[in-house]
Amino acid sequence: MTSAKYRSIFSPSTAQQRKENFDNYWEFTQQHGGEFLEQDRDLVVKRAKLEYFQNHPVKLRTPLAHPEAFYRNYVDMQDEPASLDKITLLLTGMYKFARHEWVGIKGAWDVAPSMANCTNLEDKISRIHLAEEFCHVRLFDEMLKTCGLDKVEWVPLSPWKEKMYEQFPKFPGLLIDTPAFVTELMGVTFYFHLYRLFDEVLAGEPEVRDRLKELLDEITIDEIAHVGQRRNFIGDTGIKVAKWLVKPFYTMFFNDIPEVGQLFDVKKMIQDGEAFDFNTVPDYMIAKSWIPSYCKV
Ligand SMILES: [Fe+2]
Ligand SMILES: [Fe+2]
């Protein structure tokens, strides 16, 4: 029997531990992403990885039967979701999830201080974090291109939703830290479920299935580190609130994406979020990611 190596992400921590963990995360994040390219909202190591994928493309053995169904439904669902084939639902659902991420970071990038104007370590960490999120959107775009979808546009949300996302990062830390953490946790939960769905939906397309997994791994490894990092912003009361927020937050967010109910078990995703403790994260991801000290046994 193997004993658990990690504690719940909702484990308590002291202010001193959190300070030390920010120092440790800062060391990690600099070597993880390499040089920060602020003008391009990019990082050297991550750019090189994306270029590798772009320079070694793989293709579907059988092109998508209904690319027009993707383009008709990817921004807003026009058809009855149950009438669409699973691969179309998978790709439109993945786009919609990534699109929310893209809108959120676009708003945050403009209000967050540039690296030169950061006055503390937390702000510097957050600046690199945002650049990583822009890399994720590029990786999602590459996933869609791998499936032959090269006319995808990243479309803003409805004006009031865009406004909401723009206002969010201007709130004081105390108010945004908890939902920001739960958002990262939701990302990790969703990506683990998405990874398993690739096996099911792309069983007849092993090259593309494996490539999508590689691209998703690049994202998930960052997101695992983000979960720990965002958790590190939160004190003892906040972390209890965060656990309580998992269910309403996941429910609200996933209700907004019609594909999710068709493809995923939202109840299980909520359970996985509430139970998250790094023990189910594969070793090859742990080796490249970051975990707060107080979540280690
Ligand atoms: Fe992300
Ligand atoms: Fe993230």
Your description of this structure?
The protein has 297 residues and is mostly helical. The protein has one domain (15-295). The protein is 65% helix and 1% strand. It has a two-stranded antiparallel sheet with strand order 1-2. α3 (67-73) packs across α4, α4 (86-111) crosses α6 (159-167) and α5 packs antiparallel against α8 (206-231). The longest helix is centred in the middle third of the chain and has 29 residues, at 173-201. The chain is globular. The model has no long low-confidence stretch (mean pLDDT 95). Residues 101, 133, 136, 187, 219, 223 line the site of one fe (ii) ion.
Bound heterogens, unique: fe (ii) ion
Task: State the strand order across the main sheet.
Answer: 1-2
Largest sheet geometry? 2 strands, antiparallel
- What number of structural domains do the residues give? 1
Task: List the secondary-structure elements in sequence, H or E.
Answer: HEEHHHHHHHHHHH
What is the beta-strand fraction? under 5%
Low-confidence parts: none
Look at the helices and sheets and give the structural class. mainly alpha
Distance between the termini: 16 Å
The percent of residues in helical segments reads 55-70%
Query: What's the alpha carbon Rg, rounded to whole Å?
Result: 19 Å
Mean pLDDT figure: 95
Shape: globular
DSSP, total strands: 2
* Number of helices, counting only DSSP H or I runs of 4 residues or more: 12
